[in-house]
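Two quick folds needed for the group meeting slides. Do the first one here.
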Amino acid sequence: WFEMGEGLPDRLLIAVHHLAVDGVSWRILLEDLQTVYRQAVENHPIRLPLKTTSFQRWAERLQRYGETEVIHDPASAVWLTAHKEGSVVLPVDDPDGSDEEAASETLVVSLDERDTNALLHHVPAAYGTQINDVLLTALVQTFGRWTGLNRVTIDLEGHGREDVFPELDVSRTVGWFTSVFPVTLDVTRSKSSREALMTVKEHLRRIPSHGIGYGIVRYLTKEGLGAVTTHRAERVPVGFNYLGQFDRVATNDSAFVLSEESVGQEHDPRNPMEYELDINASVVNGRLHVSWTYSRERFRLGTITSLAEAYLKDVQALITHCLSTDAGGYTPSDFPNVELEQDALDAILEQMN
């Protein structure tokens, strides 16, 4: 607890190792902290919501699933060939530069409140999308102009708390559930923002159980380990994670608000960086913030600045399109009980119109 001086709000620093918590866990802990704080201030009994399934039980259930069930699930076969497409090589400014954490820098760019509000609340109606669909479509478009290829392979990070075991509830369980899985997004055949957005949306919808199966196949099955590891030999250059809306934790009437000060160094300086570019997005104080972490010895600041600003423009262009009068459409995943290709669906919708 830091007392900052007269007239200044104090600071509370909370540090927990990533092995113990993930992004969702932070929300649980901070919401509970606020609840307890208010109850204590108002001299009320301390009452918190009930706990959910323990992390230990979740881990044991994953282990059993990997040993006896997942390898027989046809949906899991996708992870055995997940990297056959090959990753796009990024145009690094200095290929001989160090990629240790000591050389890491982070650049943050932000949308304004109006565009962020539209992205969260109005854009999804046009094509039945989620925020990740828009953010990743913009990313592949930005990278397409940078690399000359309208395709990019990324490691996509998810919350990992998938509903694969009906008997378990981990909605209020603290732990590191995060899943990471490879995704190759290709909009080469897309001739417009509409087609690109629909293509990315469909690709993401086809990922079984939001990607949790990749880690299970890779680490918890003997059959899958060799095949997946072979494809992982080539480094995935880009990591992407949308962390969600932190405004839900620190609202205007909260006892606490998120501080803008740095929390300090998060990694050992001697560690190798996981990705050439590690991109994290989150909504804080009503604005979408996108951080680009890179090695300053491999990329010039100007390169990353241009890339990050171009990305924001691509996000804004997609927002503008989705809010236009000619936007809108359905994709096959909107009709899960029928097997349809996009062309067939378009023909049916045209006849109906």
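Then this one, please, same format:
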Amino acid sequence: MKLTEFSVKNYQFTVVFFLLLVAVGLSSLLSIPRTEDPQLSFPSYDIIIVDPGANPADLERLIARPIEDAIKELDDVTKLQTTIRDGLVTVYAEFKYGIDTDRKYDDVLRQVNLVRPTLPSGITYFQTRHEQSNHVALMQLALVAPDASYGRLQDLAETLRKRLESVTGVGKVEKWAYPDKQVRVTLDLDKVARLKLPLSRIADAINAANVNLPGGTAELPGRRFTVKTSGSYASLAEVADTPVAGNGTATVYLKDIADIRWAYEDQEYLGRFKGERAVFLTIQAQQGQSVETVTGGLRAAIASFRPALPGDIRLDVGFEQQQNIDRRLGRLRIDLGVAILLVLLTVAPLGLRAASLVMLSIPLSLAIGVSALYYAGHTLNQLSIVGFVIALGLLVDDSIVVIENIARFRRAGHAPAEAAIQATSQIATAVLGTTAALLFAFFPLLMLPGAAGIFIRSLPLA
């Protein structure tokens, strides 16, 4: 082959070229994001609405249909499915694969926001979510304390959450498994009955005192000020001093008819870590970030936070995605070492120089593969690692066949350079044909459409 002849006769260029490949491969290996699974952004979105007490018929007529009609106005809709239960509506919208998912998410938000003012006023929860693979937690932490109050745990969890969110590459930190603090107002029903106060009037008084409303503007010569009423509660005393009734001469305050104190919401689930009471934090990375880099920053933040913990509370790491990635990369290193050892044992009778050349072809080819993945926008994940492991077998087979044919020509009396050119040219078609046949077995996976194709694409590409 002309390529073989050119490479052998211009070996200085060949050596420099492969040194450049090594440099590009090492640079790509250091820069490529390492994740457990491929990082994907699916063109599918969930709109979740909660309207407590509403029946399915009203939810379909007043909420589901307006949202569906708004989504149908968008292009490339392939699936629109609505699930309705008592008080809950979930609208699932899927679009054609290959579109710009972030731009389509903006389009979905725009359509939903246009409908939002026309929906019932009793809605307590409204969220539009975009499905992405990076929403899987890369780390879970547990604040463990058998005896500490949930108030202390919540405050510590919030402090830790803010510190973790400042780590480069962190997308979202959530707290779990604790009841939220709330102000509980317990009415003295006997006093309420004697004063003939409707419960709705008391509730309206509390709601009215706990809102901020714009108060217009105040204009002075050369100046203009925006006026806003400040009604948000800042303490229990302000809640207690809320007026609920009056007759011109006397005022009834909330503290006169109720007991006001800090409490917790009803606890619907319990958090346990290794059998002990705990509050959890889960951390998600931003799209396209390397799990290894983000995990390093999180570990440093956790190490600096631990000394500030009280003696009766400890911080444990319950899950770390980086450990799974290290285990899979370790498996690739083991397979690479086994492949090189097999080549050495097989080609050793041909001489150390020949065996060394064959062994060089394996890391060089992997360097090309890693570079291709990196510049194609993929990550080093469990699927691409499987692709590399499969490729190792092909590399070993091809390398052994070529080097043994070169050795046969050398035994026939040909000079080294001539033997390399003629031996490679003689079997090049056969080697490329068999390798291509194996590669084409993975070609359908490369062209697989939909979510499955996007998820598995890094394996055949590697």
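Slide caption for protein two: The longest strand covers residues 41-50.
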